[in-house]
Amino acid sequence: MTTLRVVLHGKQAQNPAVRAAVASERAAGNRVDVRVTWEPGDGVRLAEEAARLGTERVVAGGGDGTINEVVSGLLAARGTGQRHPALGLLPLGTANDFAHACRVPLEPGPALHLAATATPRRIDVGRVAGRPFINLATGGFGAEITVETSPTLKKLLHGAAYLITGLTHLAELRPVRATFTGPEFSWSGELLVLAIGNGRQAGGGHVLCREALIDDGVLDVSILPDVPRRERAAALRSLIQEGKVALWRHSVTARLPWVELTSDEPLQVNLDGEPISGKTLRFDVLPGVVEVCLPEETPLVRQV
Q: Cα separation of 236 and 166, whole Å?
């Protein structure tokens, strides 16, 4: 028998597929309790509480933001000497970028069964300004597009919603001047998009850090420098529709255990979709601090 706590985003409380998945795991002999979030911070509290109670696995039922909160709670419990439960993923968000890249099933039944039965693997967690991220930190105009795109538009149009929002705000585009320093790495200039990845993709499947691994002890850095004004619309369209092509061809890239960013004005950065901002931000990696229940075939771990 495995003991699981599902930390479920409030919008999914009445999801019949989730209810069926929970019932199936209980029938299989596993102990499953469900706690529903109501406001920001609930996921952190509920995950930390589960660790204090000795729960073996805490399942994040929601999108990347819910995963982020649960990971924050697990790390807080680790800091107090409490038992450190493994993380399970129940993808219920709009994009589910981290789960999708890891090849976690997107259907509640198979996803919860994986969380109950998989052998956990140790993975890294990124951190900036004291806040963790398990997938990606993105900045620049791409991050602004993510914030401005409405949930309704994303639900209707998926990835195309970001393109529409970006083109609508194109006249407001101002490149960010920034400097990056890290071990044997330095870059300074104007950027359009920044991605610092533990995972690989954001914004509904756009691969921004194509070679990132979640257990290699480093962060993958991708910087897309500014282009001439007349080329920005085409560059934005290429970035959003064919993100991997635009970034791989034109980006400055590095793989670093830490990198520090300084900018002339506060830069907005999204951590797993949740925004922060600052003129000086230091990103580093916490190697192997979380155990996660993942499929055997996930491409985001080192192959041995």
A: 7
Residues belonging to the active site: 274
In 3D space, the residue among 139, 182, 169 whose CA is nearest the CA of residue 285 turns out to be 182
| φ, ψ for residue 22, nearest 5 deg | -65, -45
Q: Give the whole-angstrom CA distance, residue 156 versus residue 152.
A: 6
Cβ within 8 Å of residue 237, ≥6 positions away? 163, 167
Select from 20, 162, 6, 144 the least CA-distant residue to 94: 162
The pTM is what?
0.85
**For residues 208 and 251, what is the distance between their CA atoms, to the nearest angstrom?**
10
DSSP 218-270: -EEEEEEE---GGGHHHHHHHHHHSHHHHHHHH-EEEEESEEEEEEEEEEEEE
The CB density around residue 253, as the number of other CB atoms within 10 Å, is 16
165 or 253, greater pLDDT:
253
Gyration radius of the chain over CA positions: 19
Structural domains present in the chain: 3-118 (3.40.50.10330), 131-287 (2.60.200.40)
Give whole-number Cα distances, 54 to 82, 101, 215, in Å. Answer: 8, 29, 25
pLDDT tens digits, one per residue of 136-151? 998 876 555 554 454 5
* The amino acid at 155: K
Across the chain, mean pLDDT equals 85
